[in-house]
Amino acid sequence: MTLVATLIANEARPAITDAVLAEARLVLATEHQPRILHGEVAAEVLLPGAPAAAAALTERLRTALGGEPIDVAVLPADAHRRKRLFLADMDSTMIEQECIDELADTIGLKQQVSEITERAMRGEIAFEPALRERVALLRDVSAGVVDALIRDRLTLTPGGRTLVHTMSAHGARTCLVSGGFTLFTGPIAEALGFDEHHANRLGLAGGRLTGLVDDPIVGREAKRATLIALRDGLGLAPTETLAVGDGANDLDMLGEAGLGVAFRAKPAVAAAAKVRIEHGDLSALLYLQGYMASEFVA
């Protein structure tokens, strides 16, 4: 069996030097020469080994590189390395904010709501009741503020658009699946180029929020179910799927995916995911699949 170790830095802080690659080859006990994916930003190297050894090798390499600003992952180098289905969380993953917190800020309740959001994302409280509690606080907020929030406050996470467009160009189905709200996922999915989106629907009356959210809630179980439904509908093997997220409500989806990536995630999520990205931007998910920067679709 063959494994592949991928090393990824942030383009703003290149760190994959010859010395780093030499150290990686030594730690991994491989004679294979590195394949450079993008300058000093990303590279990979093949090594012999069984899939069961990948997690331990990842930790060994991460420890050896110490404080270097480099993400590492050792994964099987199999025929399904380039995924054909991609699911992504939205808040704090494909965008850099939490939409519900920004909505709360319009009525001066951001701190109160964000504290609940943070606890839910860390897995300290159940997602569904936490969502209903926060939405109730938004009663009577004008739905008209959403367009302004998207325009003025929300920012796309670097690398996200390139990630989605590149995977789409190579035949993958892409889906934005969020515990947030369709008022946001619709425009964000369009801006990023996703094929489809799934999220919660806020109750509306007379152009204002009712403080209620429609059933069923899109939470932890629903995200996993969406992945399974899309995977089965496309006739794909589990290994052909990729998912990314940052919060506790993403854990089931990440665990179900052939490759589940925790992106700048809460500690419990980072610890549970197959791969974690802490330094690179979202283009890291392309390097993990073996794409070279020259193959990216902007």
From TrEMBL:
Cross-referenced SUPFAM superfamilies: HAD-like (SSF56784)
Class of the enzyme per the UniProt entry, highest EC level: hydrolase
Keywords: Amino-acid biosynthesis, Hydrolase, Magnesium, Metal-binding, Serine biosynthesis
EC nos: 3.1.3.3
Biological or metabolic pathway of the protein: Amino-acid biosynthesis; L-serine biosynthesis; L-serine from 3-phospho-D-glycerate: step 3/3
Pfam families: HAD (PF12710)
Cofactor(s) this protein requires: Mg(2+)
Superkingdom to which the source organism belongs: Bacteria
Catalytic reaction annotation: O-phospho-D-serine + H2O = D-serine + phosphate; O-phospho-L-serine + H2O = L-serine + phosphate
Family of this protein: Belongs to the HAD-like hydrolase superfamily. SerB family.
Protein name (record): Phosphoserine phosphatase
Organism: Methylobacterium cerastii
